[in-house]
Specification:
Number of strands: 9
Helix content: 40-55%
Number of domains: 1
Largest sheet: 7 strands, parallel
Shape: globular
Oligomer: single chain
Radius of gyration: 19 Å
Strand order of the largest sheet: 3-2-1-4-6-7-9
Structural class: alpha/beta
CATH class: Alpha Beta
CATH topology: Rossmann fold
Distance between the termini: 62 Å
Length: 283
């Protein structure tokens, strides 16, 4: 049996690192991309010698066109890609009024346009080989808006719409497009990966009180965040499925319930529920 190949972007931490380990354990050849050479050791950490022999690490910044062009040249040396996992991303935090257009663009260059760049680079190969799976790592934030995260939420909403359209376009070529929608997990997206608007935590910010409440809530809930390996297990199961997979897979504690409640309640009630949850200790 021919060994399958999976391409994973943003493989140095969080979900990407978990995906890399899990696919190597499952016998795949893994092409793991990282933005900087300095992150190579983060990918290799915890891998056996045998697993490292099935691993190829490439440098790729999904937000830069010239990096994508270099990446395309490297792809010409690869015979096939059975699974593409668009995982690279980060979270921009801040309130809409205090964020610049440049900051929104920065968020979209990675989380949305980066997915399009990599997907367009891989699609010709998948069409030629007669099939493949494209798994886009979205978020519950792609379905539910949240104050102080409008750039991240918007980028994931855009990813949802793009994936719906792309799925129908490429199905005739035997290519499946899937959205993975995790809730809160123990990844670095809320620490080293987060960009915070300068004004949000400033004493004169009109959103200072709300920011404090949100931050307190996030800190209090950190211990209940899920293990990224749970998401990795779902992704591997989807990748290995011999049947055409569903469009969406929701993963994590409370995700399905939150979405059910949002759809069930009138918007005014949902809005009130969210605001009450954010009152925190300051009210």
């Amino acid at each position: 049996m021919n060994q399958k190949t999976v391409l994973i972007t943003g493989a140095s931490g969080g979900f990407g690192k978990a995906f890399t380990k899990r696919f190597l354990m499952d016998g795949y050849h893994v092409i793991a991309t990282i933005r900087q050479e300095a992150k190579r050791d983060l990918v290799l950490d915890g891998l056996t010698q045998e697993e490292q022999e099935n691993l190829t690490i490439l440098i790729l910044n999904v937000a830069e066109d010239h990096s994508i062009e270099r990446f395309k040249i490297q792809l010409e040396k690869i015979k096939q890609i059975d699974v593409l996992i668009n995982n690279a991303g980060f979270a921009m935090a801040g309130f809409a009024e205090e964020l610049s257009i440049a900051e929104y663009k920065l968020q979209f260059e990675t989380n949305f346009f980066g997915v399009i760049r990599v997907t367009n680079a891989v699609l010709p190969m998948m069409r030629k080989q007669g099939g493949g799976k494209i798994i886009n790592i979205s978020s519950i934030s792609g379905l539910i808006g949240f104050p102080s995260l409008s750039p991240y939420v918007s980028s994931k909403h855009a990813l949802e719409g793009y994936s719906e359209s792309l799925r129908i376009e490429v199905q005739p070529f035997g290519i499946d497009v899937v959205l993975i929608e995790p809730g809160s997990f123990q990844t670095n997206i809320w620490t080293s990966g987060t960009h915070l608007a300068k004004m949000t935590n400033h004493p004169t910010s009109p959103y200072k009180s709300m920011f404090t409440s949100i931050n307190e809530r996030l800190q209090a809930e950190k211990s209940s965040y899920g293990d990224p390996l749970a998401v990795a297990d779902v992704v591997v199961r989807v990748a290995n499925s011999k049947r055409s997979p569903a469009l969406r897979y929701k993963v994590g504690k409370g995700v399905k319930l939150s979405l059910f409640v949002k759809r069930l309640l009138p918007w005014k009630w949902w809005e009130l529920l969210v605001r009450n949850q954010l009152k925190g200790k300051n009210k």
